[in-house]
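Cross-posted from the bioinformatics board.
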Amino acid sequence: MSGGLLELRQLRKNFGGVVATNDVSLRFEPGTLSAIIGPNGAGKTTLFHLITGKLPVSGGEVLLDGSAITGLDRTEIVRRGIGRAFQVANLFPSFVVRDALAAALMAHAGRTASLARSFPPRDVAERADEVMELCGLAHLAGTESRHLSHGDQKLLDIALALALDPKVLLLDEPTAGMGPDERWRMIERVHGLWLARGLTLVFIEHDMDIVFKISQSVRVLRYGAVLAEGTPDEIRRNPAVIEAYLGEEHAL
Amino acid sequence: MARDILLAGVILAGFLGLEFTGLGSSGLLDFAIRFAIFGLLAMSLNLLIGTTGLVSFGHAAYFGMGAYSFGLLMQSGGWSIPAAIAVAILATALLALVVGALCVRLSEIYFAFLTLAFQMLLHSLILSWIGLTGGDQGLMGGIPKPAFWGIELAKPAHLAGFGMFCLLLSVVLLRQIIRSPFGAALRMLRDNPDRAGFLGLSVYRYRLAAFVIAGAFAGLSGVLMSLYVSGAFPTFAFWTTSGEAIFMIMLGGIQVFLGPLVGTAIFLLLNDWITALTEHHGLFMGTILLIITLGLRKGLLDFVMEWRAARRRAAP
């Protein structure tokens, strides 16, 4: 499936008196690779929660390919084509990798009501194998999720989202908690997935070297609002961003 | 699957044949039928605890429901045993559907206590509805056991064979359920209900389905119990019965499919030996359970399987 167009219009979220998301309007073109950066507490993860329906919005709209998905049930939002991987890998610990992917595929397709067949059916197992191949998890097919390394757990988390054929994939800090080498391996993997699938990919990242190396466009959030957006070069020249977040180290 | 059913048939035939050989000692038969009853109860409860991650404290309600509804049907006269068993299982499933619909929305401790509350409700109902149930005297007067398909359940060997047949058939069915896509969905709910819901599973419906299935198998176990004692008693639906089933699961292990059966065998054997040795039965039983639970930190089969898996990982 190719990429979808994700638009946020005047998106708002209040927690009591605190404005966590303040009239955010952003547009992610089909098939693009975008980074979202910003200081801690800028509302990056909250933005993902709003897009995926994990939190109800206080105002504004989320549109996928032009139709509003705001207020839909989060399962329905997944069905419409928005996938998400989590900051802390959110897995099925006792499932081996292949079964976890097969189970995700079947749950998504509404095929888990069957009592008579064996799990996983062959066609589903084959699709699980494809996803494993794509994510570089094939050699771990028979390993229980809880015994995977930290990096492989994050990879499986992404694979679970990817198995559902999303048009838009949201990755919340795919490299969180990894060492420098593992971090680059992970991001190359993500980059490869994006190239292979042509989906619209949006990721939150704290490592500026990674952000500026691979993303086509960057959005900067601060205090829940959009501080700046543009190409990596534009962002590195933007005085407001340098002052608020980047510091001189990453400026051009 | 076909092979398993054949095996079940052979076991049934074997027990039926015992009376001709004269080998069937009453102690062995007695143990076999009790093993079938409590093994089935423990296996059915483990579909909730081990597979779905729902710890029910009120599973004995369905054991009691199966026993009483079967007993009452047979005493009312005119019912054949297979028909009465089918109706008793259906009635139990219906009760589980109603109770489950109210309970499975809740998680963990609230779920556990609400299931317990409904069980105690049923227990009080049995005690107070004396006209129907005989109150604390239980269902008196014996349960008629007309022969069917050449099986005479009034004979201990036939009853033991029939019990083992039911147990094996249920174990095969439960195994198929756990290995099916539906079973995979239940395991997803146990591992991570949040993500399972995110993937499109209805947490509520699948939990409810598991609750009803587990209740139905517990109902069958109750039917066997009422055949065994030729009656039905309020203790069937008392919390101690639920507790014993949980003990059996904990002794044998919840992660390995046949763990509850191992636990049932240990529990029954311990129970018999200790009862023969001392009158302070509860004290010794409790101490032994405490030692096993605290010593192994898991059921026996879980312990053995994990130990083997760790050894395999250590020596590739």
